[in-house]
Design goal:
The chain is mainly alpha-helical. Helices cover about 45% and strands about 5% of the residues. It is built from 24 helices and six strands. The chain has helices spanning about 40-50, 60-65, 70-90, 105-115, 125-145, 160-165, 175-180, 195-200, 235-245, 250-255, 275-280, 285-300, 310-320, 345-350, 360-370, 375-390, 395-405, 410-420, 440-445, 450-455, 475-480, 495-515, 525-535, 540-545; strands at about 10, 25-30, 55-60, 95-100, 120, 145-150. Strand 5, helix 5 (about 125-145) and strand 6 (about 145-150) form a beta-alpha-beta unit. Helix 17 runs antiparallel to helix 18. The radius of gyration is 25 Å and the shape is globular. The model is unreliable at about 1-5, about 10-20, about 515-520 and about 525-555 (pLDDT under 50).
């Protein structure tokens, strides 16, 4: 299908229809993937028009569940979301059919068994999903099935943004914002699917009803012994409750200013929304519209574009990735600086498992493993530590850990943030590194966060909590935490490692500057120009446009 299409309907030639009754009755299958909700679901609403029957499906590949690099906490969130969706559909005299297998294998069988002649789904903006959907579109063409797809996982049709930018995605946030200012506002969210929406359409019942139930973690092969209670409960119902709470924060609503950072900010919040946007339990268009309406009500003025920085950074990375199948890797990625990272399995394992010897870093990684979420400033800290700050290990390795553990990590945003934080793309301020002691002390001055996630340090005096190796041996013994025995020694000398790594990445950019002098074109060279400008005026701290606490894509 053409990449110029934003929303599309494909109708197969009537000669290929293989059920005679299809020409008079509409039998719909709606395929849920990311958009796990009934509100703002334009593809489902369009498909339901004049339908005689409808079935809503979600496809789980059992092999993928057992072998993929997706952790148990993310799977639990997904299954909870499916359970919630199933319950909502049952209130509409329908249900969710959870199918096991691969889409190309199971869909033809279902189409034939259920006499399907219309398939609807939310458009997937990412390269892998687009390739998969092209195959399904071809399959539907072969058997005479109409396909309905609509944009609703992003605010804008991404191809339209790319067209406005001359055929390529904008690769600076300022450029991206300028394009949005010249475009119409995002489409309003669709109303929630109700019994009125469904009309006369029915969902047939089956004797083998249990065959299509949402599986348990155990049925998917996960060992749940020792699994801690969920901090984030999946599902559209929870998402809408959280959105209401998010909008009720009166002090923040009154000013729409930069929220004050406190140690409590590092903990999961009952108003956090990012996992729900990632799984599509909450519509990004509904969030955008709700925030705009609230601003108009409080300020009596049209909302500025900056109000939506939280979701626009998400949109920016989706747009940058949509036509780049190598967006999640360094080699073959035209926008990524090629940096000779080290390979150090032992050092990487210590980072990933929270055993670096730096309490601030280790507490963050522990929270990530236990809860599936960390504050966006905490993400900055551990990403810098792994890559350009201390360990000089590729951002790709860190991205994989986040993909496994982080509830709100999706392909585009996860890869984009890791490239950004490692100075591999979008950002060249490699002189600015996060100190794993000073940054932690500023964010968590009393060490309450560290003590929560690293109980081995709970008796360590506050003055030593961020660098316990400096505590006298007697104090370590009194705190029941002898460094090197009960808690690891620091794995690196941060000050020395930072100086070495800044020089290494500086050399990479200098080589690119030299290469630029004899070459032309390419996004990497725009990065080089940014570096050259910074070298010239030496004002790195003031020049960078980056997601701040107020416009973090993590939607804290």
């Amino acid at each position: 299908m053409s990449s110029q299409r934003y929303d599309y309907e494909f109708v197969a030639p009537s000669s290929t229809v293989y059920h005679k009754e299809r020409r008079s009755e509409k039998h719909l299958v709606h395929w849920f993937r990311k958009g796990l909700r009934l509100h703002d679901n334009p593809a489902l609403k369009e498909g339901l028009k004049d339908a005689a029957t409808f079935r809503c499906i979600f496809i789980i590949d059992p092999w993928f569940a057992g072998s993929s690099n997706v952790g148990i906490i993310k799977w639990r969130f997904l299954l909870q979301s499916l359970e919630d969706l199933d319950q909502s559909l049952r209130k509409l005299n329908s249900r969710l059919f959870v199918i096991r297998g691969q889409p190309a294998g199971v869909l033809p069988k279902l189409f034939k068994e259920w006499r399907t002649n219309v398939l609807s789904f939310e458009e997937d903006p990412e390269p892998y999903g687009r390739v998969r959907d092209e195959k399904i579109l071809a399959l539907c063409q072969d058997v005479g099935i109409k396909v309905i797809s609509r944009t609703s996982h992003t605010l804008y049709p991404l191809q339209k943004i790319i067209e406005k930018n001359g055929g390529s995605p904008p690769l600076t946030y300022r450029q991206f914002q300028n394009i949005l200012r010249a475009m119409d506002p995002p489409a309003s969210p669709e109303s929630t699917v109700t019994l009125t929406t469904i009309g006369r359409a029915k969902t047939p019942q089956y004797a083998n009803d249990d065959d299509y139930c949402v599986p348990t973690l155990e049925e998917l092969g996960f060992d749940t012994e020792g699994l801690m209670p969920a901090v984030w409960k999946g599902g559209e119902s929870e998402a809408l409750i959280r959105l209401e709470r998010h909008l009720e924060r009166k002090a923040w609503v009154a000013s729409f200013g930069r929220p004050k950072m406190t140690p409590q900010s590092l903990l999961a919040s009952s108003t956090g929304l990012s996992p729900y946007l990632r799984f599509g339990c909450l519509s990004v268009r509904l969030f955008y519209q709700s925030l705009s309406e609230l601003y108009r009500k409080v300020r009596k003025a049209p909302p500025p574009l900056s109000l939506h920085g939280q979701v626009l950074w998400r949109e920016f990375f989706y747009c940058a990735a949509t036509n780049n199948a190598n967006f999640d890797r360094m080699v073959g990625n035209p926008i990524c600086v090629q940096i000779p990272w080290d390979k150090n399995a032992e050092a990487f394992s210590k980072w990933a498992n929270g055993q670096t010897g730096f309490p601030w870093i280790d507490a963050i990684m522990t929270q990530l493993r236990q809860e599936g979420w960390i504050h966006h400033l905490a993400r900055h800290a551990v990403a810098c530590f792994l890559t350009r700050g201390d360990l000089w290990i590729s951002w790709e390795e860190g991205m994989k850990v986040f993909d496994e553990l982080l509830l709100d990590a999706d392909w585009s945003v996860n890869a984009g943030c890791w490239m950004w934080l490692s100075c591999s793309s979008f950002f060249q301020q490699f002189f600015h590194c996060y100190c794993p002691v000073k940054f932690g002390r500023k964010a968590d001055p009393n060490g309450d966060y560290i003590k929560k996630y690293l109980p081995v340090l709970k008796h360590m005096p506050t003055q030593y909590i961020h660098e316990p190796w400096t505590a006298p041996e007697e104090i370590q013994r009194q705190a029941k935490c002898v460094v090197g025995k009960d808690y690891p020694m620091p794995m690196v000398n941060h000050a020395l490692a930072m100086r070495i790594n800044v020089e290494r990445i500086k050399q990479v950019y200098r080589q690119l500057v030299s290469y630029k002098d004899v070459c032309s074109g390419g996004q990497i060279f725009s990065d080089v120009e940014g570096y050259r400008d910074q070298e010239r005026n030496n004002k790195l701290h003031q020049q960078h446009e980056k997601p701040s606490l107020n416009n973090s894509i993590t939607l804290n």
